Amino acid sequence: MRKLFLLGALFAAGLSFTACSSGNEEVAQEPSLDNKFDAQGKAYVNIAINMPTSGGLTRANDEFTDGSSDEFKVEDAVLLLFNGKNDTREHEDAATFISASKMNNKVSQGNDGVRISDRILFTQQISKGNANLAGATGLLAFLVVNHNEKFAVNDDNTLKINGSSTNFTGTFGDLKNIQLSELGNTTNGLLMTNAPMSSKAGGASSNPSGALITYLTEIKSTDIYNSEADAYAGTSFVDIFVERAAAKVSVSSSATGTLVDGSVTYNASNLKWEIQNTNTKYYVERHISNSYFGSNSANLTSPGIYRFADSQVVGTGYSLYRTYWAEDGNMSAVPDNVPGSGETKVQITDFSAWNSLSSVQYIAENAVDQNSLKQQYTTRLVLAVPFNDGNDFYTCSWQGGDKIYSTSDMAAEALEFVKTLPSYTTWKAANSSYDVTSVTLTPQADGSATFTAITATPGATSTADIVTEANAKAQLSFFKGGMAYYKVLIKHFGDDETPLPTAISGTAYNDIYGSVETNRIRDFLGRYSVVRNNWYQIDLQGIRHIGKPSVPDVPTDTPDDEIDAYLKVRINVLSWGVRRQSVVL
Fold first, then answer.
1. What is the rounded CA–CA span in Å between residue 471 and residue 396?
2. Using the 8-state DSSP alphabet, how is residue 40 labeled?
3. pTM
């Protein structure tokens, strides 16, 4: 009886599959490859969709987890064949497209018939199309799982991609550079493609410099069968490792009680959150190079952790390692969805569209290069935390910003404040028998509030000078519905593998990250970013101060590591891959 291979543990280990042959040996010349196909150009192969079964825990906060069962189900798949070698990046990129096939003949599958539990095995008919393989260098495979109608296979095994009216006829390099805008979903399946793998290990003290990074899986002549029956009876199969195109973000909170630096109470269990600064497009295949693989931060206590490749093989019998970085289509430019001047992209008047603590959100990757660790480039969360039992309140600068006032109490406190101003002293000298009796405060759209009138006893002279000075010297904030807003920039490698230096000379970009680009790459590339197939868990651990009364602006030319002591946050990254990030607001 034929051995069946289950595919579910794959996602438990991070769903970071790749499409490379076992050991990644060079594709040999296959002069008889053409003879493996019948007169109609058809043949059969056994395809195993895999996930890694172990994690090297390269980074201190790296874990592997299943996530939701719907995140690793297989609804459909398309197998693309290329003619070429994968012994160098140039050869792999130059591999030419041959044909596409819908994969619909599962031999074994997940425990519930749909989801990957370790390995799903297909016996698959393939076509050589119009290619003459008599002198071919080799067949290479690329897999698209849950294509969500973006990869349409025609009856003659040609292919249309992303709604194009013409058939795809290019190279693998051409395919890699196509951009999609839909990530799929847990109903129809999250889109997955081959995961790039390194030929060398990273991790502690293992330098992967010069590693060969491969995407495509070799199909050898011995993997090809003349009939479906022969394939089903055969023992040779082609292992393809895949990864999700989406990144996952979730928020948890262990923060309760009062502010770290005050006595104001809050209830973070009712917080809401949204994501800003995201990309709306992503490459069909994750891009990554080996030019920075030898980087390890000089700011680590014990330097020598090479963060871009895993330290353990992707699975038993392989000499391939996961890779942990991406190069998206706009690394040195702002993401596609960045708030413009005067807009927030997040509506604060209606929280029905915001996420709760039980929600997750899937987004496209947004990689930030070593010269773009600035807030206008970096994907961030906005957290909205309720204070004062969800009732409106004010804060004021002259009381430190962490003391809350009802509307009536703020008016009384503001009246006492104006009596401390020099303009009031001058006014009072000219109006000795009169006094100011009340103030009028008006909330503004940005969450600030202004003194709009100061009322005096009848017969007194104008209080306009007092109003002017009060607005110049005081800062008032109005928190509609008791909501305070905080920003959290998402870290990828974060403090574990790209820590800041112990001494920073100032707040300018060069003061924090240095002025030498090669050192920035070594020390900080990937510190902040979102990479596909990673789960970014934002854990709110505490709040130090009341936040902003409206969604914080996205500043320009402000370093990501701007000093901000509002939150205590930890980010954990699971390869799905999860990255946890804890914050104190």
1. 12
2. T
3. 0.89
